[in-house]
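Subject: for your reference before the review

Hello V.,

The reviewers asked for a structural picture of the protein, and I figured it would be easier to keep everything in one thread rather than splitting it across files. Below is the amino acid sequence we used in the manuscript, unchanged from the supplementary table.
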Amino acid sequence: MDANRKVELFLERPMRRGRASATHKGALIIIGGHEDRTGERRVLGAVAERLGDDGKIVVCTVASAEPDSLWEEYESAFRALGVPHVYRLDVESREDAATPRAMRILEGATGVFFTGGDQLKITSQIGDTPLYSRVQEIFEAGGVIAGTSAGASAMSETMLVANDGEASYRIKSALLMAPGLGLAQDMLIDQHFSERGRMARLIGAVSQNPRVLGVGIDEDTAIIVEHNRSFVVLGSGAVYIVDGSTTSYSNIGEEDSDRTLSSHGLTVHMLSQGDRFDLLTRTPFAHPAESMEREKERKRKRATGE
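And here is what came back from the structure prediction:
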């Protein structure tokens, strides 16, 4: 379809997540930040593997204050991983997200990668624009949407945008949240998790609405979400789950705002590489990390004919 017509179509009929026809054929790869870009590249390799033999990935640097240097790093990393088509998409305004140029860059893309930076720049610049509709279209067609650091937080239905929360969470804490892109449904994602001591703030966020599942992801670690039904952990760190559905008591709506939060009965899981998590039943399943390494080796041998 002509790029100009594509923009017109998405302006007339945006591809919003709540549509009755919405599907979840694609995969989300949600990364906790500081993933290895020069060595083994295990996490980025998972993105590359899902792009297809003639895959095309578009690296969107909208969140970054230093987009040029980030683009160079990711272009080098994805090309080293054998991705044949690597493109850059800069978005400096909402007008940029509604241009035929953006549609042309995304034409034929089998994956989109959001870099780190400021997650509010992602949502405020592309939310409900033709660019967002095109990302949703790629996802629904079976493509991969990946994001690291701020790009990971933006995947959430609700995202954390302020308060590092290294101390115990107080009810009056300036924990600011905002609507995310909504690709990862019913999840609130935090990144750089153990490295920045963010467990208290994730518990505080989940306590405000236990319907939403808290997911904290360490650096150089990712969750690979399939069909919004389950995910598997990949990488050198851990993934922490805070499930507030089992909460028996919380003082968040009762006590003076100077008080420290009390929250009883929360369910917390710590997962590592290979472990799986069922998002529908909120149940973890152990899976040896070595099994993922063996599967990767089998794929390599099939590809090389060994």
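For the response letter, the relevant points are probably these. The chain has a mean pLDDT of 91. DSSP finds nine helices and 17 strands in the chain.

Happy to draft the paragraph if you're swamped.

O.
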